[in-house]
Amino acid sequence: MLQRWLVAIIGLPALLAVLLLCPPWATMLLVCAISGVAAYELLHVAGKNVSKAVYGITIACAVVQVFLTFANAFGLFWLARWPLGPAFVLVVLLFFLAVLTYGKENAIPFSTVSAAIVGGVVFPMLYRCLVFLRVSEPFGRIYALAPFFVAFAGDSLSMYFGMWFGKKKMAPHVSPKKTWAGFWGGPVGSALGMLLLGAIGAHWLGYEANYPNLILAGVAANLLGQLGDLSMSLIKREHGIKDYSHLFLTHGGMLDRFDSTLFIAPVIYFFVSIGMI
Q1: Which runs of consecutive H residues, i.e. helices, occur in 136-260?
Q2: What span, in angstroms and rounded, lies between the C-alpha atoms of 10 and 240?
Q3: Where are the chain's structural domains?
Q4: What's the pTM value of the predicted model, to 2 decimals?
Q5: Which of 24, 133, 253, 275 sees the fewest Cβ atoms within 10 Å?
Q6: 91: Cα separation from own chain's centroid
Q7: Is 92 helix (H, G, I), strand (E, B) or coil?
Q8: For residue range 209-265, what is the model confidence (pLDDT) as tens digits?
């Protein structure tokens, strides 16, 4: 319990400082770190015969993909013009290594190639929506906070709904503690979280909150966020582990803490990009 409070006391203020007080490139660096660690954790759990080379190129691809969101700002215009470059290079190198090692003791199976592509391409593609939210003017700070309000508020009310009303299990083989009551509590909590964020933004930053749209965004993001949570749990169950790592002590690893954010951030960015919130 002490470790859980320690992570919350240190981690939450640090997260808020990066999103609210620091310039946008700090959010980019944070998301680079999240994506790189998430790619490593997925390979560590789902990969077989993972060499240092596979770890290196996968993590590098994840980090560079997020960095591309700021390539123009750093004068790397040639890199920004080829956004699929890192993904292409990763896929080419992975299959080259797979062909090179096939039939040997250190052969790289297709399951490892697949895990590396998901970790090095798909994860950063989804996570970097956090950067897009942060640089969305004029309320980037509010938008960047939205995925975390959706996740934290939804998880909290889902937990309490499960404790109060939970009887029927939702996906017992994937996540034994999740119930249908908790499932319905999630969207309610996320909608309330978005309403709170809108009210804070309206009071302190002049944000013109459209509360019905905020509710809609919170519900939609939570539903897909729960799928993200279950998806990462499914991988853990297939490989017989409880946590991806112990990066956050008893809170688990990066993919344990930021699993639902994978799907939440793109949904929130969609609502922002079409001007609904």
Answers
A1: 140-165, 180-204, 211-238, 254-257
A2: 30
A3: 25-135, 138-277
A4: 0.93
A5: 275
A6: 22
A7: helix
A8: 999 999 999 999 999 999 999 999 999 999 999 999 999 887 899 999 999 999 999
